[in-house]
Amino acid sequence: MKKFEPINITCKDGYQLSGQYYSANPLAQSAQTQSHPILICPATGITKVFYNAFAEWLTDQGFNVLSFDFRGIGESLHGALKNSTASIQDWGQLDIPAAIETLLNKTQAEKVILIGHSAGGQLLGIAPNHKKVARVIGVSCSTGYLKGLKGRTKFLGPVMFNVIFPISSLLKGYGATKFIGMGENLPKQVAKQWAQFCGQPGYVTNAIGKTIFEDFHHEIQCPITVYWSSDDQIATEANVKDLLSLYPNANTQMHELKPNQLGFAQIGHMLMFKKSHNQIWPLITQEILSQA
C-alpha cells in the first residue's frame, strides 16, 4: 500500500515533474502537524523513490512532505534521454521553485523547510522564490570542487567529467553514470554543467553572467545547516565550507558525522537516507525544531 499521493508539479515553462506527497501521520508523536512542510530535493541522478523511508519517517514526526524527480530524471524524464534538454540550472531556476509552490499550495503553509541531498541543497541561490524557504538542511551538500575531493572519487571525478561524459554524450547522447554506480544516466546538459560547476570553486556561481543572470546568494538570510560525514569523498570539509561561503548573509552551520562514533562502518555520500542509518534522522529533525 502506497503511503504517498502521486502529484504533478507544473514548472513555469510548462514542464511537468513527478512528485510524491506524504501527509503527516495524524497519530504522530508530536501533538500536531508541524507548521512548515518539508521539501526533499534529490541528489544528481537520484530518484524520489530513494527517499521513501526517510519521507515516511518524517510524517511520523508530524511533517507533511513532498519529494520529486528533477526534470530529465526518473519519472520526470519524458521521452528518450538523449533528447532531454534539462540542465542543472533548470533544476534550480524552475524545478525547485515549482516544487516549493506546489507544496505551499497543497498545505496552505507560508514557507517550506528544504532538505537537500547533495545537488538538491546547492541550488537555492538561483531560485527566484527563495524567500519562501524557512531554512535549509543540507545532507552531503558541498560544491563538489574537484580539488577538494578525496579517496577514489578524487581520481574518478576527473575521468567522469573529462572522459566518460564527453564520449558518452557524443556516442549515446547522454552522460553515462549508471555503469560506474553514480545514479541514473544524465541528460547531456546536466552532465556538461556538472563538470563545469565542479571544475572550479563556487559550483553554480561559475555560470553567473554566462548562462545564469539572476543571482540571489547574497539575498538569502534563512538558516542553512549542512550535515556531512567524515568518510564522504565528495562533500569533504573543504567543499562544504566552499558551498556555505556563497551565502554571506545567512546563518550557516556545519555538522560533521563520524561513522565509528555512530556505530557505522561507513556513511559516505549516500547512506544517510537509508533505513539502515535511521538513527541519524532524529539529528535532522532536532535541528529543525531547535530553530522553530
Keywords:
292 residues, alpha/beta, Rossmann fold, 8-stranded mixed beta sheet, 17% strand
Give structural notes.
The protein is of the alpha/beta class. It has a single domain (5-290), classed as 3-Layer(aba) Sandwich (Rossmann fold). It is 28% helix and 17% strand. The protein has 7 helices and 10 strands. It has helices at residues 52-60, 88-107, 153-171, 188-198, 237-244, 259-262, 281-290; strands spanning 5-10, 16-22, 38-41, 65-68, 112-117, 133-139, 174-175, 186-187, 224-229, 252-257. The strands form 2 sheets. An 8-stranded mixed beta sheet has the order 1-2-4-3-5-6-9-10, sandwiched between helices. Strands 7-8 form a two-stranded antiparallel ribbon. Helix 3 packs antiparallel against helix 4.
Overall pLDDT confidence: 95
Task: Give the name of the CATH superfamily.
Answer: Alpha/Beta hydrolase fold, catalytic domain
Count of individual domains: 1
Low-confidence stretches: none
The span between the termini is 33 Å
Task: Describe how the helices and strands are arranged.
Elements: E1 5-10, E2 16-22, E3 38-41, H1 52-60, E4 65-68, H2 88-107, E5 112-117, E6 133-139, H3 153-171, E7 174-175, E8 186-187, H4 188-198, E9 224-229, H5 237-244, E10 252-257, H6 259-262, H7 281-290
Parallel strand pairs: 3-4, 3-5, 5-6, 6-9, 9-10
Antiparallel strand pairs: 1-2, 2-4, 7-8
Helix pairs in contact: 3-4
